[in-house]
Structure formats: structure tokens, C-alpha cells
Amino acid sequence: MPLRAVTSTAAISSAPPSYLLSPTHHHRHLHFPATVTSTQFSPALLSTETLHLSTSKRRRFVFAAEAVDSSSPPSATVVGDKSIVPDDQFSLAQISFGVVGLGSGVTLLAYGFGAYFNILPGSEWSALMLTYGFPVAVIGMALKYAELKPVPCVTYSDAQKLREKCATEILKQVKTDVTRYRYGDEQHLDEALKRIFQYGQGGGISRRSAPVLQMIREEVTEDGKYCLVLVFEAKTLQLSDFEQRQAKFTSFFGPGITAEVGKGVNDLYEVRLISNTPA
């Protein structure tokens, strides 16, 4: 016999179905009104509520699955530490004595003249300041003229960890020499380049064509070896000029290293001094 909605009220003695109860009220004694309309329990309403509940559960299940998938770690991993180490260590080698001498001498001369003409206090010291200020300024000017600035150095974290253990003493000395101020030298590694490229000799190059060191770089090779990279600028040379002297780079900066040469961007060439000491 088909069911139909009636408007009369009927007393309900039994509790409502469990799907109408919230999860937090399963263990509580709930009181319902004594009379409700019979249309609330029609088959159409039950089917609609059941469909809505199952759809909501499926949606929550999908959302939970997506959350788990998004929290899973990526498959790619980072090999090695390629972060650059900042060069914030203070060293006297990084101070320009030309700038210090010239600045000190000019200051003494300026104050000495001011005190001598009673513009500044300390007239009794004016003669002493003028006497020492002039030679100090001249020495500072000479040092500034003969000054060779240090080249920039890029050091990666993984290379810094291997330097003390794997770098040879010659490689450490090369890094120290080219990253400090020098006086009287035309360029960094001048003696080494003179022997390797044989300036003005048969089979060599002219001095005006000599490569100029631009920077150095400390890194680790793919097989885990410490490597000091010398980056030169040579506008009149070719890669073959460096490849012909690859063995000379190895013998001069050896023992315990292997030299490799390569072409960089524009007129830059790289000489890679790879330490043979295992990590």
C-alpha cells in the first residue's frame, strides 16, 4: 500500500535514527518533542538524507587523501651543500697600507697647517705634525701606486669543509696570496704565468697577451674532490693555448694535484686545480 503524507500528528515513542544524531551526542539522553509530523520520516526524505550523508563522507575521505598526498616528501633530493660562505673574517692582509699611509699623512699635514696658523688648537705640535706628515703621505702615495688589489674569492660550504683536509699546502698558499693586497707585482701569479706561458720565448706568448687573474673559486668536483678554480681573462688567447700548457699547470702547482682547463663566458678561461687527496 503506497505511503502518503498525512497532516495528523502521531506520538513517537522510539528514538530517532542514529544518522540524525551528531557524533557528540551519541552517549547523551536526548529528549524529542512528543509529536512530530509524519512527513519527517517519509521514504523520500530518508533517501535524500542518506545520499547527502554518504556524499559528505566521500568528500571528507577525498580531502583527507589529498592532504596526505600533499604532505608526502618530494622525490628530488639536494646533493651537497652549494651555499656560498660569506667572507667576513678580518685580516690585516685585507687592509690597504697605501690608503692607511696616504690618509694618515694627509691628516697630519692638514692639522699641522691649521695649528701652525692658529686655526686649530695645538700650535706647539704643528712643527712635529708637518715634519712627519709629509713623508708618511709620500710613502702612502707610493704604496697606493704600486698596490695590487686582491681578487674576489667564491667559496662553497662543501669545499670549505674539505679545504683543511684535502687542499695541498701550495693550493692554500695560492688562495692566501691572491686574496690579499700585494705591492710591486704587476699581476697575481706573475711568476707562475711567466714560467708556464714563457713570455717572449720561442713557443711562448708576448707579455701583453698574458692572461689576467680575475677571481678564484673553491668548489667540490662531482667525485667529491676539493678543487681550486683560477678564472683568467685573456682576450688574445684561445682555449688551445691553455690546453697545450695543461701539463705545465699540473707540474707548477703540484705535487698532489691534477689541472684541467676549460672555456668560460666571453674571454674567460678556467684552470681547475683538483686535489688528489681523498676526502
UniProtKB/TrEMBL annotation:
Pfam families: DUF2854. The keyword Transmembrane applies. It comes from the Eukaryota. Keywords: Membrane, Transmembrane, Transmembrane helix. The chain crosses the membrane at residues 92-113, 125-143. PANTHER family: ACCLIMATION OF PHOTOSYNTHESIS TO ENVIRONMENT, PTHR35551. This is Thylakoid membrane protein slr0575. It comes from Saponaria officinalis (Common soapwort). The lineage of its organism: Eukaryota, Viridiplantae, Streptophyta, Embryophyta, Tracheophyta.
